[in-house]
Amino acid sequence: MPVVRDLRLLLSLKDFRRLLAVRLLSQTADGVFQVALAAYVVFSPERQASPGAIASAMAVLLLPYSLVGPFAGVLLDRWQRRQVFLYGNLVRALLAGCTALLILASVPDWLFYASALAVTAVNRFVLAGLSAALPRVVDDERLVLANALSPTAGTLAATAGGGLALAVRLSASGSDAAAMALGTALYAASALTSLLLSRGLLGPDRIPGRPRLGAALASTAQGLAQGVRHLGERRAAAEALAAMTVMRFCYGALTVMVLMLCRYAWTARESDGLALLGVALGISGAGFFTAALLTPWAAGRLGPHRWMALCATAAAVLVPVLGLSFALAPMMAAAFFLGLTTQGAKISTDTVVQTSVDDAFRGRVFAFYDVLFNVAYVGAAGVAALMLPPDGRSTPLVLLVALLYAGAAAALTRRRRCFT
User: Fold this and answer.
1) pTM value?
2) Which residues lie below 8 Å from residue 210, measured CB to CB, with a gap of 6+?
3) Looking at residue 317, what is its pLDDT?
4) Which of 134, 169, 212, 402 could form a disulfide with 319 if both were Cys (CB 3.0 to 4.6 A apart)?
5) Over 60: is that where the pLDDT of 229 sits?
């Protein structure tokens, strides 16, 4: 099969393999850290989590990315990306270790959230840098396949990391600090692995007459505006990004709903709810993997926008069909299909943005991409908090999500008709 042949060729590229290893270790650590965080905030026996509490936690951890993101973009277009992976993961290793100590010390919640926020803030630099660096180790012909393999493999690694966190938590008598310590070790391993890549290999390209760092930081808002303006001139990328943001909102709202169902509706004990959440993450991860196999072929035959439209249409149909019963088996099936459609759309979006945006602007555009993702996710959590009852069953929320998916599908379909 051509895809299998191209995949073998892709994996034969030494620098691609090394960049992929950095991603896998980093995102495995992310999965460990995030599940340990969720377990501490939502599934601790002494805490009675509500949709509002979950939304508040997401806001504290994610909304500041709207401030970090622009700085990440400007700096990623100036700093050597290899060094970002090295020092970013070392900093996260240190901060994750501090978070583990804060859990053991039973400090006030605000101090714990501040430490966790610092870990996830640095994550913006690393993930945006990984996406911006990918075209430096893969040719344009295989970029779609690289986008199918690399981010999806990272998502699967994060899912596996979540499973590791659950295993550590259960084996360590509910110790979230032990899981945080595992994340610390994995962040350090990712930092060391980045040293296998040449320092200047991953870019960015140097532009003559570039201002000093202090002047660049002072003009961060202007730099972000330039990135957004450049994105506006690349209509295909802008429209794909807008549709993906809507789909991210939908996925976030359903994530909060499933979390509440695991916590209160499907199980009687917190430990059982956490284990069930792990199963849901694993099933969704299988959907991500399936998307990685399908998307290069589907996007190649249909085109990225039409494949995204098909993913959004499938989600619009499957969400009410499988979700309105709020039963365990149909919701697990929905987790698989939404993992497939969401990741399939994201692979296509990444490819459209990478191929449409100039290298000198990629860091800023992908940082803006991350900002949209996080604002959409937090907004989804806020809407879910307003609409969800304590047990997580909300027919209006399911119907709203289905309508949003349908709207994204219609917009993508209309876009193709206008430009074909």
Assistant:
1) 0.71
2) 78, 216
3) 96
4) 402
5) yes
